[in-house]
Amino acid sequence: MKRVRNLTQLAALAGVNPGTVSRALADSPLVKRETRERIQGLARDHGYRPNLMARRLRVQETGVIGIVVPLGHEERQYLSDPFFMTIVGCLAGALSEKGYDVMLSRVIPDDEDWLDRIIGSGMLDGVLIIGQSNQFDTIERVAAGYRPLVVWGAHTPLQRHCSVGVDNRMGGRLAGECLIAAGRKRLAFMGDSSAPELRERFLGLCEAAQAAGLAAPLELGAHLAIDGMADEVAAHIDRVREQVDGIAAGSDLIAMHCVAALADRRLVVPRDVSVIGFDDVPLAEQTVPRLTTISQSITTGARTMVNLLCDRIAGREAQSVEMQPFLVRRDTV
Fold it and tell me: Is residue 223 part of a domain?
């Protein structure tokens, strides 16, 4: 059969006008079922595929959602970080189920207009941002005039932008209470507390220590960048290993490096030092020993973000969601 290359040729073949063909291929109930099936069959037989881009331009939709990772606080962090890989995979899967394609961007904010350029590109139906980084004010400003925007991050009273995330301070308290219940009295936090979410985790750990009558935890500023993290964590372990018997890490990856550094120094986890992570990425239960951690419910959170974004694209109201973290007890505490 001769291949049909455009809507007009298919309409001539079917003996109807191009508008009827367009509606039939869109499965519109305005076209009789028999006619729809005949036109759809002709399209299949003659190898015709509708031009989705042209249709999207007509209806002013792109079918593409932007997933943006702003790294204002940590320029050396990469998408190969287990947390980013996990949440990006969950978001992409949920968006695919909704019929959307994905455009992924890792952004080092160089001015206040970086987000304006993304949403003004005309390439996206909506934007999902992973982490507020140190860009809270920029996200707030853009959210005031751009509705299809949902952020993975902390929720604060009166914020404009729609966010999904856990109560990080409660997560820090849970980590502290877990370490203290295991008999640990000399606590430390390993992570870069200049990041808003990690700062809340550190403050929650401090609250747990204070409630138990313990000294304030040491703050050990390990960056989130993968390159150099192992050396930085190892240097901290060398400096404080006689002063600390319980470590709450700002992420699972930092916790894994803690466990490795302690093992390299012939310190047994959890016999000598207990370690607890934060995130519950899939890799956490594959390490040896398996990592005790605080779960952010990443899969649930990602699906919630996509559902809220779809509501906003459709013009419906969608409010921020703050999930409750929970302890996943394994072998490192």
Answer: yes
The span from the CA of 250 to the CA of 74, in Å, is 14
What average pLDDT does the segment 149-169 reach? Answer: 92
> What does the pLDDT read at residue 277?
98
In the chain, how many domains are there? 3
The reported pTM is 0.80
Helix 196-211 and helix 168-181, axial crossing angle in degrees, nearest 10: 40
Distance of CA 243 to the CA centre of its chain: 35
Phi and psi at 273, nearest 5°, equal -140, 135
**113 and 222 fall within a common domain:** no
CATH number, residue 79: 3.40.50.2300
List, in sequence order, every beta strand (DSSP E) within 83-131: 101-107, 126-130
The per-residue pLDDT for 52 is 57
Cα 168 to Cα 165: distance, rounded to the nearest angstrom: 8
Q: Which amino acid is at 302?
A: A
Question: What range does the domain containing 12 cover?
Answer: 7-50
